[in-house]
Amino acid sequence: MQYSADFALQNNMTLKNNIQKEIFAKMKDKFGYVNIMETPKIEKVVVSVGVGSFKDKKKIELVLDRLTKITGQKPVLRGAKKSIASFKTRQGDPVGVQVVLRGSRMQGFLGKLLNIGFPRTKDFRGIQRTVVDNMGNVTLGIKEHTIFPETSDEEIKDVFGLAVTMVVSSKTKEETFGFLEAINFPFRKDRSPSFEA
Q: What is the pTM of this model?
């Protein structure tokens, strides 16, 4: 049989449907789900880096380049909405870099973060449950972008941190916890102090 993009898409959809069925089976009794469409899912992932303190334009260009390699998508440069004298910021000055991931790129990034990034993090012992907010979304702080394999050979002076926000379609915080546990999200099991990757 000749391999085609349609065949790859069909296999990908089958895999996603099987995963959704597994999550539904794990959550339906606890949350009273009747239809598989009630099962929470990750709608999008937002990856952002603050660059307001960077005075060198080359450093901002480096962040744009590294974030493109990590996510597989070109980032958008965000400017300041208004001037703030105490921060020496003028309207339009670059203050952040952001990527919004959906679909296969989102799945690929999350797979890389969970299966490669976290295990490569020094002294990683799991994620604190406080990363889930009252809306049911998940926000993670990553101190070093070099946990991703595309940038592992970076010089220490070029290392920067980034924030990862997972927007989950759940209606409550408890549903998000149930969903994350169903997909084996690496929560910390003890009550030790809060941790950022």
A: 0.77
